[in-house]
Specification:
GO terms for molecular function: methyltransferase activity. This is Methyltransferase. Pfam families: Methyltransf_25. With 235 residues, the protein is α/β, with parallel strands linked by helices. It has a single domain (3-229), classed as 3-Layer(aba) Sandwich (Rossmann fold), CATH 3.40.50. The protein has helices at residues 3-20, 25-38, 57-65, 78-91, 128-140, 160-175, 180-192, 199-208; strands at residues 47-51, 70-75, 97-101, 113-119, 142-153, 215-220, 223-229. It has a 7-stranded mixed sheet with strand order 3-2-1-4-5-7-6, sandwiched between helices. Helix 4 (78-91) links the parallel strand 2 (70-75) and strand 3 (97-101). Helix 1 (3-20) crosses helix 4 and helix 5 (128-140) crosses helix 8 (199-208). The longest helix has 18 residues, at 3-20. It is globular and about 45 Å long. The protein starts with a helix and ends in a 6-residue tail after the last strand.
Length: 235
């Protein structure tokens, strides 16, 4: 899918997105728990860049934990971003947030952020060079030594392990009340529209985007997470 198709897809899904994935929230909560530890040394007035954050789960979590942090939310789906904004208003944190509707390249690239999050986003960029360019765009916006916490679907799709994980993942989705027709569309999308690559290859893509060698810090089924520190030579 191209950028316009991805944006349209998430615009269409926005209204029911959180409800649809409610039963998988334990995975998200575990990721957020580890994220707290990863970001524990950030300053009390840290500036956080959240890339492709959808309805804003990680922003809400971090804002509750750190009342002095400020956030820039980057999301191309206007419908998703509207839900994120409304959630921030309900939480009373909207004054600490800047909401940017669009892709990362339309955000000024001054290196000012102390950390960034990017969860289940880069997997939609199928070309490895463009995917590294995406991470390079994040690196340019981070202060020297700042950290990126990212996650994507990852596996060696040619290996027997992938079939084991995929069956378990689809069973998890079915138990989370994802309809059977949606499961079939998901399986087809994984083969066609999602860049599922071996974890070590994704780590290399991140490193080529201007980061020190990424450190794996999370796995739940097909979702893998990395911590990556901006390299000094990031451009």
């Amino acid at each position: 899918m191209n950028q316009d198709e991805i944006k349209l897809l998430f615009d269409q899904q926005a209204a029911g997105y959180d409800a649809q994935w409610a039963k998988t929230h334990p995975i998200r909560d575990c990721l957020h728990l580890l994220l707290d530890s990863a970001f524990a040394t950030l300053p009390p007035d840290a500036r956080i860049l959240c890339v492709g954050l959808g309805t804003g789960a990680e922003l809400m979590h971090l804002a509750r934990q750190h009342p002095g942090w400020r956030f820039t939310a980057v999301e191309p789906s206007g419908a998703m971003l509207a839900l994120c904004r409304h959630a921030a208003e309900r939480e009373g944190i909207s004054a600490r947030c800047h909401f940017h509707e669009g892709y990362l390249e339309s955000l000024p690239d001054t290196a000012s952020f102390d950390a960034a999050t990017c969860f289940l986003v880069s997997q939609f960029i199928l070309d490895p060079a463009a995917r590294s360019g995406f991470f390079q765009g994040i690196a340019r916006r981070l202060a020297p030594g700042a950290m990126l916490a990212s996650s994507d679907l990852a596996s060696d799709v040619q290996s027997p392990a992938y079939e084991v994980l995929l069956r378990a993942w689809m069973s998890l989705m079915a138990a989370a009340d994802v309809p059977a027709d949606a499961l079939e569309r998901m399986r087809a999308a994984y083969a066609r529209d999602v860049g599922i690559l071996p974890p070590e290859q994704i780590a290399s893509i991140i490193a080529a985007g201007g980061f020190q060698p990424p450190v794996p810090f999370f796995q739940a089924g097909l979702i893998h997470g990395w911590l990556s520190m901006r390299a000094d030579q990031a451009r």
